[in-house]
Amino acid sequence: MSPTLTLNTDGWISPARHCPSPHCDDRPEKEVSLLVVHCISLPPGRFGGPHIDQLFLGTLNPDEDPYFAGIHQLRVSAHCLIRRNGELVQYVPFSKRAWHAGQSCFEGRERCNDFSIGIELEGTDTGEYTAAQYRQLTSVSRLLLATYPAITPERVVGHSDIAPGRKTDPGTGFDWTFIERLQG
After folding, report:
1. pLDDT at 2
2. Residue 57: enclosing H or E segment and its boundaries?
3. The pLDDT of residue 1
4. From residue 166, how far is each of 18, 27, 30, 83, 102 by CA, in Å?
5. Residue 144, Cβ neighbours under 10 Å: how many?
6. Residue 151's closest CA among 56, 45, 31, 6?
7. Burial status of residue 24 (CB atoms within 10 A of its CB: 0-12, 13-18, 19 or more)
8. Could you confirm whether 120 is annotated as catalytic?
9. Which parts of the sequence belong to the N-acetylmuramoyl-L-alanine amidase domain (predicted)?
């Protein structure tokens, strides 16, 4: 059984590995009302290693992999990452705006970073995710829904939902029935 997650007043979750990212800023609006599920692997299709941390911390070395030459300069982050083994890593406190959604729109509102929380799953948009990831995602999501009442199960979406045509994650292998567990 996983330990119970808690959230401190600064917006950091525990237990989690904290890696504060410089790629965040103050939210222009205080109400958080959307949870966005993403996926990432670096290099694409490879799991483990330090590269996701390095991307979100702005320290990715472009010489370590040819793919990194095109992305090392990006200033992106997510609030959290859930690794394949269920490890939870937090880069940005939930009270801040992480730079995860890019150009996006939900229910006619643009700039989803302003009012959303972004959670990355280590994976690909064509693969499946692990049971450990779903357990951790369910735990984190339950905590967020309890903390931010404007986030409801209907307001848990994929990156593909808020940036259609531009993004496809979390992909076809993602099991959206995990949302049913949020209400239990």
Report:
1. 65
2. helix 51-57
3. 55
4. 30, 24, 27, 24, 10
5. 22
6. 31
7. buried
8. yes
9. 21-171
Tokens describing residue 55? 């991307």
Between CA 72 and CA 59 the distance in angstroms is 8
Residue at 86: amino acid letter: G
Sites in the chain below the pLDDT cut of 50:
none
pTM over 0.85: yes
CA distance 40 to 34: 19
Rounded distance between C-alpha atoms, residue 27 and residue 10, angstroms: 14
Superfamily name and number for 6-182: Peptidoglycan recognition protein-like (3.40.80.10)
Q: Residue 55 is inside which H or E element, if any?
A: helix 51-57
> Looking at the DSSP assignment, which residues form a beta bridge with residue 35?
117, 156
Q: How much is the pLDDT for 150?
A: 97
Query: Domain residue spans in the chain?
Result: 6-182
* H or E element in which residue 180 lies: helix 178-182
Contact status, residue 41 vs residue 124, Cβ threshold 8 Å: yes
Of 29, 120, 128, 180, the catalytic one is 120
pLDDT of residue 3: 79
Region of 58 on the Ramachandran plot (φ > 0 left; ψ -120 to 50 alpha; else beta): left
